Amino acid sequence: MTQGRPANKMLSALCLKPLTRFSFSLLVLFAACCLLNACDSAPVDGNAALRDIRGEESSAPNRFFGDIKSSEVFATVERDNYLSLPSDHESHPDFQLEWWYLTFVLTSDTGEELGLQYTLFRFNTDSRGDQQHAKSHWANTQQWMGHASLHTKNRHYFEERFAAGNVGNAYVKRQPFTAVVDDWQWKSTATNNSKEAASESNGMFPSSLLFTFGNEKKNAKSSVVAMNAALPTATSPSSQYTLDNNVVSVSLNLSATGPFIKHGDNGYSKKTEDGRLRSYYYSQPFIQANGTVNIEGKTLKVSGKGWFDHEWTSHLANSQAMGWDWFSLHLDDGSKLMAFRMHASTGRSKNEKNEVYTTASYITTEGIKETIDQASISITPVKYETIKSGETNRTVPTAWQIRIPKKNINATVAAFKKNQWNDSLFPYYEGRVKISGSHSGSGFMELTGY
User: Fold this and answer.
1) Contact 406, 142 (CB under 8 A)
2) What is the pLDDT, as a whole number, of residue 289?
3) Which of 194, 254, 342, 360 has the fewest other C-beta atoms within 10 Å?
4) Helix, strand, or coil (residue 397)
5) What's residue 78's pLDDT?
């Protein structure tokens, strides 16, 4: 972030006029920076420093969200304000950050394993609480970003898109549930007039997911295929960012086979022990997906499991929030596990160790959730991978040991391939994993701040 000029003042200035390529880039950069175990051995200290496979201390994630303070003008996450579904499927524009996150572990009819991601992010950039004054001539203060990623065993396809709020090409609505950016669309197919359409489960499912990646761009130094559409400008004709060459096309039908899960205390999710970093957070881990994925002209029939996360907050656009290690796991016995380690700076002293807050939700096959506290779980990196991102070599922990003795879980979670790195405007790790040890299975892992 540019030093010497408050980010909020810069954003206010940007919102007062139509966006040029430069100002839009700065705005998106700010938004991106804001984003955002038998088990006979006891768990290790959740606040222990990361150590690499040689036993040497490694650095923790460092200021993934940038040196930006949360503003008092945004709505706050409160413990006694419980989630209500299906109404909370929709957007919460008074909060600073929000995302709707779908990941899938798919298998084709020929046995090929795929990892698929579809995410829509929303950012409120109105740091002064005066949306009318801060809006431009054509948009409000909400900004949107879409991410799509597909991993085959040998290739990676990725694209990100950006949109201004209130223009009409990016939004989330509840009836029927729809999450859209441009022609990427996730939409409920429930009957509007039925009682099921208004229920907690069916307000979002069944649904269809349709999106297409375009404009293949090969990176000769890696197997990654980066397909980032050019940022729009005030003067460029729309044809300059029309996607002409469709490389990946996804068409999935989604159904829910279990309940939504509200993490933490009925959806109030602490990211630090004292709760200074926190969010509203729920998931749908019981998604069955069926459909097709067309990759460079070859159509594959696919099926598999999906996981949906919805989270919103005004407490993570903060210099104390340094990144996280997050796991969504489908275990072989039908149970599910969501676990994360949040890295936070105490802000008291440069020499003081950073806090690592660890927690999990263990979910039975019937959808009964149990919160696993920090004393009952250990998540330890056991293997690292060096990933080249631009001119930067990043050391990323891509294999982990997860121990939860009271659940007889002592499992290794490891990337199913190398280089599952999203080289987006703000780079992060997002990819499919395989599970071995006390349990087998598959899932996803997201690592930020590296």
Assistant:
1) no
2) 98
3) 194
4) strand
5) 95
Residue 220 inside a domain? The answer is: yes
Residue 86 included in any domain: yes
Identify whether the C-beta of residue 439 lies closer than 8 Å to the C-beta of residue 331: yes
Domain annotation covers residue 2: no
Domain annotation covers residue 1: no
For residues 27 and 125, the answer to whether their CB atoms sit within 8 Å is: yes
**pLDDT tens-digit profile of 268-297?**
999 999 999 999 999 999 999 999 999 999
> What confidence tens digit (pLDDT) does each residue in 214-238 have?
644 343 233 333 333 333 332 333 3
**Looking at the 3D structure of the chain, how many domains does it have?**
1
Could you write out the three-class secondary structure of 10-58? Answer: HHHHHHCCCCCHHHHHHHHHHHHHHCCCCCCCCCCCCCCCCECCCCCEC
Both structure tokens of 155? 């290739």
Q: Please give the residue range of the domain that contains residue 192.
A: 7-36+41-447
Return the CATH number at 194.
Answer: 2.40.370.10
Q: Half-sphere exposure (CA, 13 Å, Cβ side) for 97?
A: 24
Q: From CA 108, how far away is CA 268, in angstroms rounded?
A: 37
CA gap 150, 148 in Å, rounded: 7
Which residues lie below 8 Å from residue 52, measured CB to CB, with a gap of 6+?
58, 381, 384, 395
Q: Cα–Cα distance between 449 and 321 in angstroms, integer?
A: 9
